[in-house]
Amino acid sequence: MTLAVRDTQLRELMDDPACDLSRLHATLRRFAVVNRLVSGWGAVYRSRVAPYLRGLGRPARVLDLGCGGGDVIARLAALARRDGLAAEWLGVDPDERALSVATRYAGSGIRFEATDSGALRSRGDRFDLVLSNHVLHHLDPAAFAAFRDDSRALSQGLVLHGDIARGHLAYGLYAVGITPLAPGSFLRTDGLRSIRRSYTAPELAAALGPGWRVEQPAPFRVLAVAEARHA
User: Fold this and answer.
1) By three-state DSSP, how is residue 208 classified?
2) Beta strands 60-65 and 87-92, pairing class
3) For 35-103, what is the HEC assignment?
4) For residue 5, what are the CA distances in angstroms to 8, 11, 110, 198?
5) I want to staple 66 with a disulfide (CB 3.0 to 4.6 A). Which of 6, 135, 137, 163 is the partner?
6) Which residues, other chains included, contact 72 with Cβ-Cβ below 8 Å and sequence gap of 6+?
7) How far apart are CA 132 and CA 141, in angstroms?
8) In terms of Cα–Cα distance, which of 185, 217, 174, 209 is closest to 49?
9) Which residues pair with 129 in a beta bridge?
């Protein structure tokens, strides 16, 4: 096994429509712990999200594309409420199985919908902030390009896509560190496959193209940043 290049042939178990539902739900619920520990959104909130929302001077509309179990948008919403920043939060995912877990966070300005970036763009929705977590590495080239372009079209301000930075140290630490949370879930297998499918920062910058910056806000993380594309 090598991490020198992305392994785009791997498929994560949770992406299989026929996967075990109880293990899928356990995976999605436990992502709340995993993401809090390793996703870097706490740092991104402090450096990017909070200053941006504060600068708007009005209630914001925030969109989480591919929200999965909903924990990332719920955490950001809680941080914003703590800081007195008013916003409406929408998490969308085309997978109803994920939304059945995410809806536990609904309320207090947070709602969820079974849809995707293309459908939202087609109906003319716009948001102040568009974000995603751990979506980019799942996408084939055509889906990646569509998701990239949709996210900028949907935003009238800022776009942030967070993901894993592929590397041997990330792979080794995750393999060991996930052990307590892994039983009865897909966390170990899918997490390691995710790392193998993920981009390095230079690879992601090349895939995104002009108008995007790639930052590394936390260890083993990449953050794709763009401003809205105005017609």
Assistant:
1) helix
2) parallel
3) HHHHCCHHHHHHHHHHHHHHHHCCCEEEEEECCCCCHHHHHHHHHHHHCCCCEEEEEECCCHHHHHHHH
4) 9, 16, 38, 9
5) 135
6) 35, 39, 41, 64, 131, 133
7) 17
8) 217
9) 62, 158
- The pLDDT value recorded for residue 228 is 76
Q: What is the pLDDT of residues 129-144, one digit of tens each?
A: 999 999 999 999 999 9
SS3 5: coil
Length of the chain: 231
pTM of the model as a whole: 0.96
**141-176 tens-digit pLDDT:** 999 999 999 999 999 999 999 999 999 999 999 999
> What residues contact residue 97 under an 8 Å CB cut-off, 6+ apart?
21, 24, 25
Report residue 158 as tokens.
């800022």
Q: Which two tokens stand for residue 179?
A: 């052990």
End-to-end CA distance of the chain: 45
CA distance 153 to 120: 10
CB atoms within 10 A of CB 116: 18
Element (H, E) at 220: none
The CA distance from 65 to 135, in Å, is 8
Hey, what's the torsion of the CAs at 39, 55, 105, 42, to 10 degrees?
A: 20
